Amino acid sequence: MTETDVAVIGGGPGGLSAALFTAKNGLGTTVFDTDDTGVYAAKLRNYLGIEEMSGNEFIHTARQQVDGHGATRKQDEAVKDVEQVDEGFRVTTDGDDGDGDGEYHATYVVLATGYPCELAKELGCDVGRLDTVEIDADSETTVANAYAVGEATRVQKIQVAISVGQGATAAIDILSAEYNEPFHDYDKSLHGGYG
Q: Which end of the chain is more exposed for a tag (fewer CB within 10 A), N or C?
């Protein structure tokens, strides 16, 4: 069984955002990405800071950022099961984790699988209206240390910007728990200010 601090299940905007923040700030992060995201069909013209970008270009750029900050991306390795175990979660995949069994242990899990999120239901997370996963203001589900982001939580009212924000929110909550204080991820610019 391979150990990781954070298992991110899904490689769309929400999952990659969560992975970027956790990997960038020193947590072992593994992303299970089956390339099943609706953002490929998108043309981003309503995303702050981007005049226009295709969904393909967005995902390509996001993956480069996540990889550059040290996350392990398991491309095309599908997650079959997530279950609570002592001090975390067992994530079982259809791949090989290096030990030959396709099993990973994570302290935190971020469900970014899209809609419907069957893994959340199987894990015991509460679902609400329209069969979406119930989350709090930090994107945490009703199962401690399990987060859900993106379409799984807002199937009818979703945008790339919302998914990215939810992923960042989940990551900041995870980092706050790990560092035992409110965590802020501000990068200083070359001019000494935040930016």
A: C
What is the rounded distance in angstroms from the CA atom of residue 54 to the CA atom of residue 140? 30
Q: How far apart are CA 120 and CA 104, in angstroms?
A: 17
In tens, the pLDDT along 81-115 reads: 999 998 899 999 987 666 667 899 999 999 999 88
88-93 and 103-111 beta bridge pairing: antiparallel
Domain ranges across the chain? 2-179
Q: CA-based angle 75:79:84, to the nearest 5?
A: 135
Tell me how far apart the alpha carbons of residues 27 and 175 are, in angstroms, rounded to a whole number: 8
* pTM as predicted: 0.89
pLDDT tens per residue, range 148-174: 998 888 877 777 778 888 899 999 999
Q: Give the span between the Cα atoms of 114 and 68, in whole angstroms.
A: 25
Please determine, looking at this structure, whether the domain spanning 2-179 carries the CATH number 3.50.50.60: yes
